[in-house]
Amino acid sequence: MKAAQLALSGVDKFYGPVDRGVHAVKSLTMQLDEGEIVALLGSSGCGKTSTLRMIAGFEAVSRGTISVAGKPVHELPPVRRNVAMAFEGYSLYPPLTVRENIAFALKAARLSQAEVDAKVNEIAKLLEIEDILQRYPSSISGGQQQRASLGRALVRSASLHLLDEPMGQLEPQLRAVLRGRIKHFIKERGLTAILVTHDQTEANALADRIAVMEGGVLQQFDTPTVIKEKPANLFTGTFVGEPPMNVFAADATLEGGRVRLDLPQGVSLTYPESEFAPQVRDRLRALRQVVIGVRPYAVRRTTDGVAASVATNQWLGDQTHIAADFAGGTIVLVEHDRARVGIGDTIGIGIQPRHLHIFDAATGEAVVHGMELA
Ligand SMILES: Nc1ncnc2c1ncn2[C@@H]1O[C@H](COP(=O)(O)OP(=O)(O)OP(=O)(O)O)[C@@H](O)[C@H]1O
Asked: What SMART domains does UniProt report for this protein, alphabetically (predicted)?
């Protein structure tokens, strides 16, 4: 079997003494194939940057191993890992122009001047920084510095490219354009890349697979589609997706040929038992205490649905977001057309079983997606 391009095995990071300091990354095991783009996605402080810096060699690994292109690197200094990194804080060399910054590693790799020029010009065009190549880092904006840093990392030939919040400083329009170009650039050259981001749109657009992290723990590592359609647990389910998944505690019972989900404040959702696979019914019977989740775009207004009182109705130019008081909380619905409902109106909420996600209330682990076992 081909070795992974990057393999982390049981990696822990403690800031301060092992087992007593801040436990930033917990027993992280993951592998990237050659040519793959992976996004580390998570909220602030979840351990993304610590992970990236351990791979690059700027932070020591407290426990575990890291291999790049089949070779253990976790005890090597950064320069010997053959890893190119674009830093969130840019870290351009101040005495060098943008052109010289981008060209630096290429010259060190003894490429001819013509090759260096061609590569620098190509990446500068892609990142729209051609007009600032002669300027010094101190005289350009944060967004321009960020693109220069990204260019410097992308032009290098390396076993692995690490991109830390590579477009955090750019305005949305430019970000959207660059995302597509950068992905094309990486794919065309077969580079292997990890990017750190807290922006799920960026992760979805760029990555082949997304590693969702929380509290230093890898929650799920899969394609954007699987993560959206089959979240492994309540954290991933509610973290990924915009607006977030609606969730409600529920008591599941099966009687009289029906599956009944009792939500707070006397709200009940009932479905014919036959809608669910037999294994799902067995699991629900055994669990009873669950959390149900439904994505806002899957909630429907129906005349025979459960009554809910409209709290807000916002038209966002291309879709409507309705929030309604439901089961002691709020349920959010997304509709594509402008909805003519006012605050205080009663609407009927319909949730089809194929759109239900059911989680174990005790552990948060997913139990059911649609009508099948998770
Ligand atoms: N040098 C340090 N000393 C002590 N604790 C640190 C240090 N660097 C990071 N931490 C802690 O480790 C945890 C993970 O931080 P890390 O920077 O890896 O998270 P992150 O997901 O990249 O966050 P962000 O998106 O805000 O950059 C946090 O609790 C953070 O406070």
From this structure: AAA
